[in-house]
Amino acid sequence: MDSHTGALAWLAQGAASNLLDRLVARALDGPPPVPAWPRPGGAPSGTVEISVRHHSAAKVRTPVILTLQEDGGRTGTVFSVVLGNTARIAVPAGTYFGAAMVLDPAHRTLQGIGWSRLTVTARRTSPCLIPARRPSAPVILQLGLRKPDGTPLFRL
């Protein structure tokens, strides 16, 4: 399993828990609190601005679950935003992997999934655009997007 698949699987496993419902509710309830990133003492930080692009031009607020993971890390931090908004996050300078899941909570469908590598420079703002594409059944299976009883977490 490469680092992309591992990071997406980590995101998918979090989505399979009740975390999904809480993140969707948080994204739709209003502006989220400013995300915090665990910082090592004294490390210079930069800012990353993450936007998600998806072909859906829905007129409703569409929740997106973002995850940001240090390159090579096994864990990350999950954020919820609304499609079309930009997440601005202060993180230590370094290389990261960002992933996004675009959801339709009313129909319990996964509208898009995407990922991107990004480099954050100290004391600067680094933009990151994550293109989300419609997922295929093999991708859903590879990521383990299933409930504990084996049924799919999302419809395609």
Report on this model:
By secondary structure, the protein is of the alpha+beta class. It is 20% helix and 38% strand. The chain is built from three helices and seven strands, in the order H-H-E-E-E-E-E-E-E-H. The protein has helices at residues 3-16, 19-28, 137-143, and strands spanning 45-53, 63-70, 77-82, 87-92, 94-104, 109-120, 125-131. The strands form two sheets. A four-stranded antiparallel sheet has the order 3-2-5-6. It has a three-stranded mixed sheet with strand order 4-1-7, with no helix packed on it. A hairpin with a 6-residue loop joins strand 2 (63-70) and strand 3. The radius of gyration is 15 Å and the shape is globular.
Q: Would you kindly provide a brief summary of this structure?
A:
The protein has helices at residues 3-16, 19-28, 137-143; strands spanning 45-53, 63-70, 77-82, 87-92, 94-104, 109-120, 125-131.
User: Regions with pLDDT < 50 over 5+ consecutive residues?
Assistant: none
What kind of sheet is the major sheet? Answer: 4 strands, antiparallel
- How much of the residues is beta strand, in percent? 35-45%
Distance between the termini: 23 Å
Q: Give helix % range.
A: 10-25%
What is the C-alpha radius of gyration, as a whole number of Å? 15 Å
With strands numbered from the N-terminus, the spatial order across the biggest sheet is: 3-2-5-6
Mean pLDDT: 77
Order of helices and strands: HHEEEEEEEH
Categorize the overall geometry.
Answer: globular
Number of continuous helical runs? 3
Structural class: alpha+beta
How many DSSP E strands?
7
